[in-house]
Amino acid sequence: MVRFEEFKSQVEGLELFSKGWRGFIFRGLWKSRKVALKVAKDKDREYAIRKECEILEFLKGVEGFPQLLLCGEDFFIYEFIEGTPVERAKLSREDRLKVYINLLDLIKKLDELGINKDELSRLDKNTLIGEDLKVYMLDFERGQRGAKKRHNLSQFLQLLLREGYLDLEKARALGRVYTRGDDGVYHEVRSILEGALSASY
Length: 201
Description:
Blueprint: H1 4-7, E1 12-19, E2 23-30, E3 33-40, H2 46-58, E4 68-71, E5 75-79, E6 84-85, H3 93-113, E7 115-116, E8 127-129, E9 135-137, E10 144-145, H4 152-162, H5 168-179, H6 184-200
Antiparallel strand pairs: 1-2, 2-3, 3-5, 4-5, 6-8, 7-10, 8-9
């Protein structure tokens, strides 16, 4: 597999876009496509980059996730996503609820595919908002494929609890239903969010 230092000359207009704990994000043009490149910060973090690449390979063709183009030894390339990190997006209460409903759909997809994302109790830079409030989930460095115990929705319930959309008793009850593997829980959470959305108009 090729390394980033050997590969980067193939990318036009390469520029550093952002820095993370495990890697750097660059952007540029590759084969006439606008792309992002995630590069391991150092040798110790190359394993996390390769693991993320494997997960994204599994998510190819699934909307709402980075679309992988190439895996290298210490980097990978995906189609650049035009969007604003949810932490910087100026969202009304109504739009935030719509984003959470869209996010719930992605969480259900991840659970169906047996992928735990981690980091869903806080969204920060890991979730982008595109046009028409379309949601994109990024950063699967801490993700896990084929996990025996799913926990995506449990983490999301913590976020909804913190933001006041659920009380503690309801969050715990939904968490227990989720742990039992009852898929009706997604419908129940959606109903709660849609009810809050209707009430906000």
